[in-house]
Write a structure and sequence with these properties.
By secondary structure, the chain is mostly helical. The protein has one domain. It contains 22 helices and no strands. Helix 2 packs antiparallel against helix 13, helix 5 crosses helix 11 and helix 7 crosses helix 22.
Length: 503
């Protein structure tokens, strides 16, 4: 257990370290930070690392096992209606406790937190049921993605512009450490129960479909819900002169986030208890392990949210504001490129994805090729996001061509690459995107006098879109290399046949 916790904490450290290094470098060069503010940031980063490490350990111990258990039980003598109802409820309940979603909700001042969280959660629930239907009836993922994204862009034409960027950001943050292990575990359980050779391949694509639901529901929310206008103001960090002041600030806010976490996680615990009482699916050791996992989840999420909201995100906002002063505006895009390049390289989930692709392709597409493709893709995405902050370019000019390219590529790559690419959209947009990049963009936009909702939001969406294109391009590379190898082998075989005939 200690070794596992150490491993997860190191993964979180590697995610946060590049951002921390960039902030420290900027603080001693172009945007000086007060010592108290810097200590506040570092303390927030520390809590984020420890919290995320404990949280991810809890996810591995509890939710993945719960998801797989539910997935395998769903197809055993159950009616289709029950399967869909359970899938909807599980997807909805799990999403409510997603940490990245809670961070995003805190930053969208125009929509009450509860309204946004439950809207997104219902969207994930609906599309979890749709994803289950796809596995059971073996529907083409590429066709479903094309239809649903076409529907999304039609809805976007009728939704207020203030909701579009937030909607696509919501699709990126839901595919986080709480939701993904559970949804993928359900897919594995359902696919295993099918007992056919295509079942494993069909397990890819659940996350891709589930990320569509939040976008669609938030766009519908924008059409029917008319909130009061919210004014985004520059973030004010309380004066912190001593380490005591820093500690006091975190201690004061800790109970607030503890209450939020208890409210969001308890429904998941309730589902686990009911499922176990009804099915007796887990033996005593598994029950103990999953119970400990839920405790870790609670502790980790409390530390994570406290660290992010008190120390980490506010300093990101302050830094963004500082980068808009005078000549420093010209640094916003280059800094975005650097952050984008390193933020994805340090993301542990990305490295897992790269290993997966290397294994599937038999080494034809290597980890280094994947790393380079994803790093360059995300770097370009963040650069475009920062350009939007500076110029106010509509997100439509970027998001629509990007998804058209991504959907067009599905016609030229093996189906497994389509599933992996669209599943990985949320992998690149890890915790650092919503906790630092988005506040950075919001701070810069506020200082420049822009519209935060239309110009700053959309960072997560653009980062999530990059892997869709990058991984499918790698799929084309794989296809061409495989064909070239086959041609060479065929030629060699022909030569061997000729030699045998001559003898």
């Amino acid at each position: 257990m200690n070794e596992k916790l150490k491993e997860k904490t190191m993964e979180a450290l590697m995610s946060v370290l590049p951002i921390t290094g960039i902030v420290l470098l900027l603080s001693i060069t172009v945007v000086p930070l007060e010592n108290g503010t810097l200590v506040l940031f570092l303390t927030g980063a520390l809590l984020l690392i420890v919290g995320m490490g404990i949280f991810q350990l809890g996810a591995e111990m509890a939710r993945a096992a719960l998801g797989q258990g539910v997935g395998s039980r769903l197809v055993k003598g159950q009616k289709l209606g029950i399967i869909l109802l359970v899938s909807f409820l599980m997807g909805t309940i799990i999403t409510i406790s997603e940490p990245d979603l809670q961070v995003l909700a805190n930053q969208v001042a125009s929509i009450p937190n509860a309204v946004l969280i439950y809207t997104v959660a219902i969207g994930v629930g609906v599309f979890t049921a749709i994803a289950v239907l796809r596995i059971l009836f073996r529907v083409s993922l590429a066709k479903m993605l094309s239809v649903f994204y076409l529907l999304l862009f039609i809805l976007a034409c009728f939704a207020p512009s203030e909701f579009v960027a937030v909607a696509f950001d919501a699709g990126g943050v839901t595919t986080g450490p709480m939701t993904v292990p559970f949804i993928m575990a359900i897919g594995v359980g359902l696919s295993a129960a099918r007992s056919d050779k295509e079942g494993a391949a069909d397990s890819f694509g659940l996350v891709a479909l589930c990320s569509i639901g939040p976008i669609m529901m938030v766009l519908l929310l924008g059409i029917f819900y008319h909130p009061t206008d919210a004014v985004y103001t520059a973030v004010e960090i309380p004066p912190v002169d001593t380490t005591y002041d820093v500690a006091k600030l975190f201690v004061q806010e800790l109970p607030h986030y503890a209450r939020e976490v208890m409210i969001s996680v308890m429904p998941v615990v309730g589902v686990y208890i009911i499922f176990q009482l009804l099915t007796k699916n887990y033996h005593r050791r598994q029950v103990l392990r999953m119970s400990v996992g839920f405790v870790y989840t609670l502790i980790g999420l409390i530390l994570f949210l406290t660290g992010v909201n008190v120390g980490f995100a506010p300093v990101g906002n302050l830094l963004g504001s500082g980068l808009t002063q005078g000549w420093m505006k010209s640094l916003l895009v280059p800094i975005g490129i650097v952050i984008g390049y390193y933020i994805v390289k340090a993301e542990p989930a990305v490295q897992v994805l790269n290993d997966q692709v290397e294994e599937i392709t038999g080494g034809v597409v290597s980890r280094s090729m994947m790393n380079l493709a994803l790093s360059l893709g995300v770097a370009c995405a963040v650069a475009l996001a920062m350009l939007r902050v500076l110029t106010g370019i509509s997100i439509y000019w970027i998001i629509i061509p990007g998804y058209i390219i991504a959907l067009a590529l599905t016609k030229f790559v093996p189906p497994v690459f389509v599933g992996i690419a669209f599943d990985s959209g949320g992998v690149a947009s890890g915790p650092m995107t919503s906790t630092f990049l988005l506040p950075l963009a919001m701070g810069a936009c506020t200082a420049l006098g822009g519209n935060v909702v239309t110009d700053a939001f959309g960072v997560v969406a653009l980062v999530a879109m990059a892997p869709l294109i990058a991984i499918q391009v790698m799929g084309i590379v794989y296809t061409r290399k495989t064909k070239a190898t086959k041609v060479v082998e065929d030629n060699l075989n022909d030569d061997i046949v000729v030699e045998l005939e001559e003898e």
